[in-house]
UniProtKB/TrEMBL annotation:
The keyword Zinc does not apply. It is found in: Membrane. Pfam families: Aa_trans. This is Amino acid transporter. The keyword Ribonucleoprotein does not apply.
């Protein structure tokens, strides 16, 4: 019996041994990434974002600058058409964001939309989408710096020259964005998200409690002149829709976020939570503020409830705007950084080349964004221009092409109804994206020109208070 027991114990040990080996192999597999290479304790841990942290990064990437212009877009379109357009754009961009996760799981070597473009269209596609991606984030970063300067002007009652505030925003953005991994930025994302939500909820409550918005006539009886349906010109309509696109255009950032998740299979879970909350917040804030303010809503919306509330709201919003600017400088810098060092030991090691390259990338992006923020200091115009020219190109067309790339050959032979429907859907997404990009860009450029023509905006590198009109 003892011999049998020894044999049994020995057999159990033999059975358990492969399990230990499997654990070692699994641990080893986790230390290697198709994008970042070998991840060790000698360098940054690029794969350290949990699914809850992913929700924070996703929401902070989108809830920041875009939400501040939604009531103004509703004023242009009318309340019902504005909500319909917002829901339609949110539906398309949610599907596009879902495709990011699917494409990443199918092609683990993809880090950015530029890599996806390289798979689909070769070297030319990689170069085109790489340049477009960097331009998009640089413009968003410029818009973020402009938002920070407005916030600093509002809180300090124009304490110094606006050009100085924009420079301060650029310096803060450079320092914070130089944190090397999204895992370490996650805590900042939570802080920024809570702050920006507090700010917009405060102004939403304030406009409901006040007698009239600050921009409305302050004498005589006043009633909100909100419109259920408006009749804007084509230029005004596409400009407003472009602002809505900008508010929902987070898909380009999601490639970077899913690439740094510990477990990318949880991506869809995070996306559903993010988009559900996003749409609810956008509709609620946009509807309530526009209902009470009517055509006297300001953009950014935080200035709609008077000087005191304006200071309070911008005080709360300031950390959120800083985190937004941090993220949108970090992402293009990280793309360029990986592009330069991918496949080398310096990507994952704390070497001089590693730090020199990384800081050069974040500094260059911050400087270019600063120039843009100073040269086009018109918040509404800059937001709609970004949404039209680059937001649609990053959130519509590529995702339609990604589904076709993965499914065209496999489904062409059988041509099942579901496959045919998806092909038609992808074609619709691509065509609608092209239409919004061309028409929206035209409308946005015309809007920026008209703003300057009527002296509604500050001059380039101006010291004027850019929070007066907001």
């Amino acid at each position: 019996m003892s011999e049998i027991s020894k044999m049994k114990n020995g057999s159990d040990n033999l059975i358990q041994a492969p399990s230990m080996v499997d654990k070692v192999n699994h641990k080893s597999a986790l230390s290697h990434d198709d994008v970042f290479g070998e991840i060790s304790e000698k360098g940054p841990n690029y794969r350290n974002v949990g699914w809850i942290g992913t929700v924070a990064l996703m929401m902070k990437t989108q809830i920041g600058l875009g939400v501040l212009s939604i009531p103004s877009a509703f004023d242009t379109l009318g309340l019902v058409p504005g909500i319909v357009c917002l829901c339609a754009i949110a539906a398309i961009t949610t599907w596009s964001s879902y495709m990011v996760g699917v494409f990443k799981l199918h092609h683990r070597e993809v880090y950015s939309i530029a890599d996806a473009g390289g798979l689909m269209f070769g070297r030319l596609g990689h170069g085109f989408f790489g340049i477009t991606l960097c331009l998009y984030w640089i413009f968003v970063a410029g818009s973020g710096m402009l938002g920070i300067s407005i916030s600093l002007n509002a809180v300090s009652t124009h304490g110094t020259c606006t050009a100085v505030f924009v420079a301060v925003a650029a310096i803060i953005g450079f320092i914070c964005s130089s944190i090397r991994t999204l895992g370490r930025i996650t805590s900042l994302a939570w802080i920024g998200l809570i702050c920006i939500l507090t700010a917009i909820l405060t102004v939403t409550i304030a406009v409901g409690l006040q007698d009239r918005p600050v921009a409305a006539p302050q004498e005589g009886e006043w009633k909100s002149n909100y419109k259920i349906i408006n009749n804007p010109s084509f230029t005004d309509a596409v400009t407003a829709i472009s602002s809505l696109v900008f508010a929902c255009a987070g898909a380009p950032a999601f490639f970077s976020i899913v690439s740094e998740m510990r477990n990318p299979t949880y991506y869809t879970r995070s996306l559903i939570i993010c988009q559900s909350a996003l749409i609810a917040i956008y509709i609620t804030i946009g509807t309530v503020v526009y209902y009470y303010c009517g055509s006297y809503v300001t953009s950014p919306v935080l200035g709609s409830a008077g000087a005191t509330v304006k200071k309070i709201c911008y005080g709360f919003a300031l950390p959120g705007l800083i985190v937004t600017t941090t993220l949108v400088i970090h992402m293009p810098a990280k793309y360029i950084f990986i592009r330069i060092l991918r496949g080398s030991k310096h990507l994952n090691s704390d070497t001089f080349i590693h730090w020199g390259t990384w800081l050069s990338c974040t500094f260059s992006i911050a400087v270019i964004a600063y120039v843009i923020a100073s040269a086009i200091p018109v918040f509404d115009g800059l937001v709609s221009l970004i949404g039209a020219l680059l937001g649609t190109l990053m959130s519509f067309q590529p995702m339609g092409c990604m589904w076709l790339y993965d499914n065209w050959s496999r489904g062409k032979a059988e041509q099942r109804p579901a496959w045919v429907f998806m092909v038609c859907w992808c074609i619709f997404v691509v065509i609608s994206g092209m239409f919004l990009m061309v028409s929206g860009t035209y409308g946005s450029v015309v809007g920026v020109i008209d703003t300057y023509r009527v002296s509604g905006g500050s001059a380039a590198w101006s010291c004027a208070d850019n929070s007066n009109s907001v």
